[in-house]
């Protein structure tokens, strides 16, 4: 009888351990706020802000909300090359050159008030989220994200 109790406890502990390792591997959610002077007059220009500066490597869900009253915004997730940290930029178009960056995925063309999400599997490294509507990147729509081990 006593052996059965010990065995049952061991099984219980084992399943708890399995459960917690699953919990650790769960997806991290990063909320992304897209704002400009139409959503908040205190914002001189445009802004992209994240509720995390660092996340652990693995699955990351980005949930973006466009707070603008009149502008389309978007979120592009870019992995930064440590040897070339500056993103290539086309001054004429007012856009980051998407063909020349490590473009991992995007939540494109969010209408004013709209929300969207994307889930990516991220390796450790430096990343930047940008809005590449013409002029928006230089107007301040970028946010850094560090992915740690
Ligand atoms: Cu934008």
Explain how this protein is built.
With 149 residues, the chain is α+β, with helices and mostly antiparallel strands. It has a single domain, classed as Immunoglobulin-like, CATH 2.60.40. 15% of the residues lie in helices and 45% in strands. The chain has one helix and eleven strands. The protein has one helix at residues 2-24, and strands spanning 28-36, 46-50, 54-56, 58-66, 73-79, 89-90, 95-96, 102-110, 115-122, 125-130, 142-148. The chain has a five-stranded mixed β-sheet, with no helix packed on it. Strands 2-1-4-9 form a four-stranded mixed β-sheet, with no helix packed on it. The longest helix is centred in the N-terminal third of the chain and has 23 residues, at 2-24. The radius of gyration is 21 Å and the shape is globular. The mean pLDDT is 89.
Distance between the termini: 45 Å
Mean pLDDT reading: 89
Q: In CATH terms, what is the fold-level topology?
A: Immunoglobulin-like
Number of helices: 1
Which structural class do you get from the secondary structure elements? alpha+beta
CATH architecture: Sandwich
Q: What is the number of strand segments?
A: 11
Share of residues in helices? 10-25%
Largest sheet: 5 strands, mixed
In brief, what are we looking at here?
The chain has 149 residues and is of the alpha+beta class.
